[in-house]
């Protein structure tokens, strides 16, 4: 029998909470992580109606994209839909977990699903993040180098794009003089010792720092480990906002709008004026994405597809590209398929239910 914490740990191995934006509130929001789970409801939003659906399907856990709580609740009196939803979940012992901007930011997350729907090729992150990688340099006796590298790689160090177990290694001489209180694994107290050592260097995501340092110290033979840590300014191409790619055959704007409606199951598209060229390069961002308009132009996109674009922000197209607002719900509705695929592959003993409640608060007449 799986527990809620097992599902949480697996989801966070794919979309770590460290990758959520500062304003976000992803993670386990309601419920006991140690509770057993046999039925999971997957949904975009959590509302009172979604809780009712979870009750009817005997679900102990709801996995959602949008957190029901963004800011701290000071009261639980049922005065608004957030409070009522949380109260109903607690009363019925239903846990709520959300994977939001952390799932937006990872390479195989929300925007990859949109790119898949649009059959985009040669995709890459539209606005990669920097400052999220670190470098570890550690010195170890030559005969222990391979064991130490294996431990570091096992903890998550050394992954660069599609290459894993990456490391750089140089040979040299290390020297040290153990004090009378030391307990050296090599050499003697009070005597200067020189050892053939290797310096191992690996890159790692900074959020894994404590895990990697713990693995390093556990695998290292020395009582005191000599190492250096550096934060890198390198961009991390597997992490960031939005995505850009290319359609197989360039299309006239009107033909592309029809294509977009068909692939994303849209009834309406709000957009700027058509450009005088075919659509080839397509930039996308699920959810509110006006902050990426300039990046889409800089990457020479022909069209930028997102939602929640404000009136004056449409002017930023400046006839250099088309800005298409397809709606927040519409841009993220297929996120449920991501959760379903992740959980189905790893939790065969759990019944997964794709939510049938339409939570979109916006209607079109």
TrEMBL record:
Keyword annotations: Metal-binding
Residue numbers binding a divalent metal cation: 65-66, 104, 328, 332
GO molecular function, one term: metal ion binding
Cross-referenced InterPro entries: DUF34/NIF3, DUF34/NIF3_bac, DUF34/NIF3_sf, N-reg_PII/ATP_PRibTrfase_C
Gene3D superfamilies: 3.30.70.120, NIF3 (NGG1p interacting factor 3)-like
Residues passing through the membrane, by range: none
Gene Ontology cellular-component terms listed: cytoplasm
Pfam family, one: DUF34_NIF3
Recorded superkingdom: Bacteria
Subunit and interaction comment: Homohexamer.
Family indicated by similarity: Belongs to the GTP cyclohydrolase I type 2/NIF3 family.
Designated name of the protein: GTP cyclohydrolase 1 type 2 homolog
Native organism: Marivirga tractuosa (strain ATCC 23168 / DSM 4126 / NBRC 15989 / NCIMB 1408 / VKM B-1430 / H-43)
């Amino acid at each position: 029998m799986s527990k809620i914490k097992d599902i949480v740990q697996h989801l966070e191995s794919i979309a770590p909470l460290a990758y959520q934006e500062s304003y976000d509130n992803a993670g386990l929001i309601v419920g006991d992580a140690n509770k057993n789970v046999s039925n999971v409801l997957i949904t975009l939003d959590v509302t009172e109606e979604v809780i009712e659906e979870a009750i009817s399907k005997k679900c102990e856990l709801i996995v959602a994209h949008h957190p029901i709580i963004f800011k701290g609740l000071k009261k639980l009196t049922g005065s608004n839909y957030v409070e009522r939803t949380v109260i109903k979940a607690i009363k019925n012992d239903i846990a709520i977990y959300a994977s939001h901007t952390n799932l937006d930011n990872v390479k195989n997350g929300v925007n990859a699903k949109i790119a898949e729907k649009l059959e985009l090729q040669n995709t890459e992150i539209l606005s990669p993040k920097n400052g999220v990688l670190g470098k570890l340099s550690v010195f170890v006796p030559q005969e222990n180098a391979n064991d130490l590298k294996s431990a570091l790689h096992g903890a998550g160090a050394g992954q660069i794009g599609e290459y894993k177990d990456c490391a750089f290694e140089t040979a040299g001489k290390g020297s040290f003089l153990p004090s009378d209180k030391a307990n050296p694994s090599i050499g003697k107290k009070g005597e200067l010792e020189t050892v053939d050592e290797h310096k191992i260097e690996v890159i790692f995501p900074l959020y894994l720092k404590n895990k990697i340092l713990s693995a390093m110290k556990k695998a290292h033979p020395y009582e005191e480990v000599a190492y250096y840590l550096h934060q890198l300014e390198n961009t991390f191409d597997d992490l960031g906002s939005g995505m850009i790619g290319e359609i197989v055959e360039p299309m006239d704007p009107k033909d592309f709008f029809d294509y977009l409606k068909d692939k994303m199951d849209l009834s309406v598209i709000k957009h700027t004026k058509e450009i005088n060229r075919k659509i080839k390069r397509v930039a996308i961002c699920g959810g509110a994405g006006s902050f990426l308009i300039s990046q889409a132009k800089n990457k020479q996109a022909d069209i930028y597809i997102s939602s929640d674009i404000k009136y004056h922000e449409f002017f930023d197209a400046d006839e250099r590209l088309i800005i298409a607002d397809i709606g927040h719900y519409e841009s993220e509705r297929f996120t449920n398929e991501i959760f379903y695929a992740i959980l189905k592959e790893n939790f065969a003993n759990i019944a997964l239910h794709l939510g049938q409640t339409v939570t979109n608060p916006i209607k079109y007449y």
